[in-house]
Design goal:
single chain; binds magnesium ion; alpha/beta; 14% strand; binds 3-methylbut-3-enyl trihydrogen diphosphate
């Protein structure tokens, strides 16, 4: 089935930047009478697989929503287990990411996350910083509103330092103050788990993204689900306001 789907993909029209809101881990676990943590654990395996497939088919930027600025509202035990899982996977996957020439970048304010997770992720960023393959954006303590406010603050600082001037401030300059600086806008935004909302992900960067929602729970999101979303994307007519 994967082969069949893969054959339907036009490799010359792969979305450059794909963003994923990986949702449904908790419900996946609940359906199986397992603790939510088990859903996150299984979900992490899918992240690893999807990163590899995405890079193989030529996606240039992949953004995954690992932890939102709102996710701090969850029970502290769940927050901790999510952070521990992240450390575990970043550490064991680092060699593989390097081998695949993937460059890891974080989106969000990582100063607020536990030291162990912060150190693991910084290490991954540093050790992959000269890689030239796919960019893997890990959104961690990320919020689209925080992204825009953070950009605004830095713009004000640079205005005061006269590095930029107000009359020239435009979208191209603004974009480069976002966590995704130097990256193209999102082409395809995927959300698993059935909800149809952005949950504060990449608000500015998805202004013209094609949105793809699937009921598939994230731990069930195998490569064929990614292929299906890309085929769907390739059948859209992107007009960007034109005719
Ligand atoms: C998404 O799955 C994972 C993260 C937020 C990191 P959820 O934990 O939100 O799963 P549901 O929505 O409760 O099923
Ligand atoms: C979005 O999922 C955040 C991440 C995937 C990290 P949530 O499960 O937190 O979103 P809501 O609460 O349903 O909006
Ligand atoms: Mg959820």
């Amino acid at each position: 089935m994967q082969e069949n789907l893969l054959n339907q993909i036009d490799l010359n029209n792969i979305p450059k930047h794909v963003a994923i809101i990986l949702d449904g881990n908790g419900r996946w676990a609940k359906k199986r009478f397992l603790p939510r943590f088990k859903g996150h654990q299984e979900g992490m395996k899918r992240v690893v697989e999807i990163v590899e497939v995405a890079s193989d088919i030529g996606i240039k930027y992949l953004s995954v929503y690992a932890f939102s600025t709102e996710n701090w509202k969850r029970p502290v035990l769940e927050v901790n287990s999510l952070m521990d899982l992240l450390v575990y996977y970043v550490e064991i996957q680092l060699d593989r990411l390097k081998k695949n020439n993937v460059r890891v970048i974080t989106l969000g304010d990582i100063s607020k996350i536990p030291a162990k997770a912060k150190n693991a992720i910084i290490k991954a960023c540093n050790e992959t910083s000269s890689n030239t393959g796919m960019v893997l954006n890990i959104a961690l303590n990320y919020g689209g509103r925080d992204d825009i406010i953070n950009a605004t603050k830095n713009i004000i600082k640079d205005l005061e330092l006269e590095k930029i001037n107000l009359d020239n401030l435009n979208e191209d300059i603004f974009k480069n103050y976002l966590y995704t600086k130097n990256q193209p806008d999102v082409d395809l935004l995927i959300r698993s788990g059935g909800e149809k909302r952005l949950s504060n992900f990449l608000l500015y960067q998805t202004a013209y993204a094609e949105l793809y929602f699937t009921d598939c729970l994230w731990p069930d999101f195998k490569e064929e689900e990614l292929f299906k979303s890309i085929i769907d994307y390739q059948n859209r007519n992107r007009r960007f306001g034109g005719v």
